[in-house]
Description:
Low-confidence stretches: 1-38
Order of helices and strands: HEHEHEHHEEEEHHHHHHEEEEHHEHEHH
Largest sheet: 4 strands, mixed
Shape: globular
Radius of gyration: 23 Å
Number of domains: 2
Distance between the termini: 23 Å
Strand content: 5-15%
Number of helices: 16
CATH class of the largest domain: Alpha Beta
CATH architecture of the largest domain: 3-Layer(aba) Sandwich
Amino acid sequence: MRKRTPLRITVLAVGAVTTALVLASCSAPGSGTTQASTSTDALTSKVTAADVAKLATTTLKMWADQAEEPLMKKVVPAFEKEYPNVTVDITYKSFDDLTATVVNAAASSSAPDVFQGNIGYAVDGALVKAKLVRSLDDVADVYGWNSGTGASTLAPAKWNANGTTFGSGTLYGMSPISEVQGIYYNKSKLADLGITAPTTISALEKDLPIAKAADEQPIMLGNSDQYAGTHIFSDVAVTEQKPAGIRDWIGGKSGSTFETDGNVKAADTMKAWAQAGYFGSGYDGLSNEDAIAKFAKGDGVFFVGGSWNGASLTSAKFGFSSLVSGGVGATASPWHISAKTTKTAAAVAWLDMLRSPAVGQEILDTGRLPVITDGVTSTDPLQEETLTALKDTIAAGTQVGYYDWTTTDMLSVMGSGLQEVMAGRTTSGDFAEAVQTAWTKGHK
């Protein structure tokens, strides 16, 4: 799911990429490393500036979400300084335009060398199925992506060969940006109520009637776009069952089902909270953006949502606690290397720079969260709390992604169905059955 995050620009300092590329299939016996002619040559060691220089003067063509432009304005000069023979040419697209056109662009005779896709079947699945993107398994092995910080965040970019299931298999993409779900809270209201910041759903549930009894709106929710409600549902659902089962269902694994006791219980909880007035009234007519704006002005005690909402809040008034039990959250749109590129060394060097701690710091400074958190710090307390929450959640391995990834129409099916449950117009069991029916249809 696309996240809406305001950006701000700060200074970037990117260290040198000290790497080397050995393309054995392109080297004669006894010869030195030579540049790859296709993107399918396997890496056996890291890329060096000398390897990239063998491309001679060249242009690395890219497509990216226009929301990345402020970050790219810092990364591109650093990359071009490190690899002076390479000019980076980025075509920026709106998110909707990017996701609607990037598959066709990747299939064309003028395909970009590197481009962003989008997790799920409509884009990344189509790219994999049509064999338009290069496997990154060798890159991950060489650069150590499969261990240490950020390793668990690679799963959404792993697919089977047919592009029909994801979450495991071959790695085809990499995102340097992550996000985490948690509980934002109004510091002064918690102090007035005599409660501490909850770090679990069960602790939150105990606090809700206390807030309600004090004539406060316990949770600020804006659900007109339907996704905010499904995010809270996910946070509850993951406490009722193993996260792996949810990830399997989202990834389209055969035999997976939404009709579990855990999902039914989670829907029952959402209904109970709604009926008790914990979300206030009129939340289905309020957007998430309007809800976070109201929360920022002092309405509501808690706001359960993703880290991208933090840009609207100040550290003086608000705090953020992690939900290490899990829930929604994953990486942003992955970067892919075209299966058609003849500039593999430069493309790999680009991904390596994006995944560096230096760029991780810049990502945090733009108000987002990096996948690589080693050495990344913030002087802003709320941002530091959010970064800590991300580290804790990644370490726990409990993020499940987003339910609507699983089919192209799941956000509408699940979002509207959950609204009906919360309003008391349908049962949790019927809701689960309807969602599973849509899933089965989408995975035929």
